[in-house]
Amino acid sequence: NAGVTQTPKFRILKIGQSMTLQCTQDMNHNYMYWYRQDPGMGLKLIYYSVGAGITDKGEVPNGYNVSRSTTEDFPLRLELAAPSQTSVYFCASSSGTAYGYTFGSGTRLTVV
Amino acid sequence: GQNIDQPTEMTATEGAIVQINCTYQTSGFNGLFWYQQHAGEAPTFLSYNVLDGLEEKGRFSSFLSRSKGYSYLLLKELQMKDSASYLCAAPNAGNMLTFGGGTRLMVKP
Prior knowledge:
The complex is a heterodimer. Chain A is mainly beta.
């Protein structure tokens, strides 16, 4: 049982480049989330999804986009990367409030 | 909105007991989570409280007072491997977690 799988683990982007962070879960969870964590800080919600075909903005959505075409996959797209997007990105999934989140191992992104 | 506060850093000695506090202000209450996060790793679930009182799980216990908007995580018999960040988090009605900034715990020999 793989849980939540994120790829890549590390990436360096140049300013203005684009990329997609992949996230897949095999637990049939309806809820999926993208968070970013800056050094020494807590996690901030970027986007979330409550089921296939449904997505919504979180606290810090600017510069990002998501899609949820299947229950399993929730990719995060960065367009026109900026240094302010240097961070660690975590994908998570959940089956409901009482069960908490299962997190992926994270993607460490540096924009130079 | 939701607001969660916890101390930034704490230091404790191996074998001791440490209490990490968390105060929260939420629009509606849907429980309170504690997560552990080792450096460079993802957060992992420690506890979830919805009712007032203390819940014990081995060396870790979590306390909740809904009337005071207050929770704490109690770690007993500290070990070096307990050096990590501890994140307090509250879900809203839509199952979105708002996290505090985390408390970095350093355990010294």
